[in-house]
Amino acid sequence: MSKRVSRRDFVRGVGAATVGGAIVGGAGGFVVAPATREDTFRSSAGRGGTLRIGGLVPVTGAYSADGQEMRRGQEMAIAEINAGGGVLGSKLELVVADVADIAPEKFINGARKLAQGDRTAALFGGYTSSTQAEFPAIAQIGTPFFHANTLQADVDAVKKAGYTNIFETDPTERWYGPGFLSLAKNWIDSGVWKPKNRTIAVITTTDPYSTSISDSVRKSAKEHGWDISLYEQVTAPLADWGPTLAKIRANPPGLIFHADYITGDLASFTKQFRSSPTPSLLFEQYGPSVPEYLDLTGDAANGVLWSTVIGTIPDERGKAFMKQYREKYGAAAGLSQAGAQYDAVHLWATAVRQVNDPYDFRAVSQAVLGITHRGVSGGYTFVEGEQAARQYPDQTRDAGLGMAHQTYQIQDRKHVLIAPEPYIQGEFQLPPWL
Asked: Where is the signal peptide (predicted)?
């Protein structure tokens, strides 16, 4: 299987498929029949025409609230780029494929529809499937694919296979567990927080992302002075947390580390926890970044801690983005995927302008690796071979070259960034139930 397929190579096959040729394949890739016409797609995206890009977005299902953030971020970038003259004189148009429950076949079928049927020049999305089953198909197509799935397994798959057109536009999840435990140690050492005990109740799901994060907490707990008192794995989505909370209340830990990332799940847990809280600090993974979380939890969320590596930084650039989002959609933006997708589209557009050809996929992908892009979510530089964005402050000490591992605390129903410097908005406060 070729992993370096240019658009020029690929359009020969797709041209045949659209005028009587055949595409044969399965989950592991496909074979493209030769065409008689060259550069089929180029004719539809000449200068002054329309250039399509694709969104692999969960429009329906449990992830749809985050999917809405993804789509809106993509739309905002497109509107801004088009207002400035487009890309190489062509106006951008977004075409979306619903990946719903993020099953592998949804990504494979969606990617093929967008790249082949809709003739998109790039693919964007917040998630990937848990098995990376779509990666071989996307690599075979050659279309640059930008996702913010925050998963080390995605990076490992790209590195092992040598895929050059698949980019993880954020750092991986491996920073979350040790990073938060280090931050908690600072609060303990400074006397700001005196935990009831040095035990952690870890809640995880069967999802590889959640499992990877919770395992990193389990592995690094000892070196940070903690013991694991409970390791509870559930199947998401889940609304009734009674059995899990019964175990926590029977043996209250100093810290609850919740690695389920589905917004509705975490909102349900928070409200049920607050009905009879234990004297435990509560950390929840990613889900609170979605606006729906505060809508569902209300005041019960006050005191909750959460982190993201794709957060919209609350500096001048980030605040301007948030303001534009509210003006456009009449609602507050989430703090993760909207900004991440906005940045990814701009990053791709910059690479295309350097190459001067949106369909020279190999050149565009190579250009991405050489770009330093400052977006609303921080600085983007990519590790060649891994195709993943660097993290700040652990992977690089230069905030302009990495995406910040941001930790927030919800205070008075507002997300307050409490780490890292130089972006902090406020200080950690003891939750109201402690």
From this structure: none
